[in-house]
Amino acid sequence: MEAVERLGPRAIVEINPVYLFRWEESQNAHILLYPEGVVKLNDTAAEILKTCTGELPVAAAIADLSARFNGADVVSDVMEFLEMAHAKGWIRIKS
């Protein structure tokens, strides 16, 4: 039986290498490019994905985002987005 990967504050996440995360001038937005298509991201989604570097735990990413948005309580919004992104395969748990 395989262990289920859990997305939590101590998880370290990175963008799945199947996806290319970049700024697309023609779309005037960040996108996730993958073999079957493209996902155009809103500004909030892009800011969250920028923290998915595979270097810091989710809790540190949340703290960074909160600091960048004047101390706003972003925990539930960020976790909800990361859970959705993980379910869609956009990000993966590194550790």
Would you give an account of this structure?
There is one protein chain. By secondary structure, the protein is an alpha+beta fold. The protein is 35% helix and 28% strand. The protein is built from three helices and six strands; from the N terminus they run E-E-E-E-H-E-H-H-E. The protein has helices spanning 43-50, 58-68, 75-88; strands at residues 12-15, 20-24, 29-34, 37-40, 53-57, 91-93. The strands form two sheets. It has a three-stranded antiparallel β-sheet. Strands 2-3-4 form a three-stranded antiparallel β-sheet, with helices on one face. A hairpin with a 2-residue loop joins strand 3 and strand 4. The longest helix is centred in the C-terminal third of the chain and has 14 residues, at 75-88. The model has no long low-confidence stretch (mean pLDDT 93).
Provide a quick synopsis of the model.
The protein has 3 helices and 6 strands. It has 95 residues and is α+β, with helices and mostly antiparallel strands.
Q: Could you give the topology of this structure?
A:
Blueprint: E1 12-15, E2 20-24, E3 29-34, E4 37-40, H1 43-50, E5 53-57, H2 58-68, H3 75-88, E6 91-93
Antiparallel strand pairs: 1-5, 1-6, 2-3, 3-4
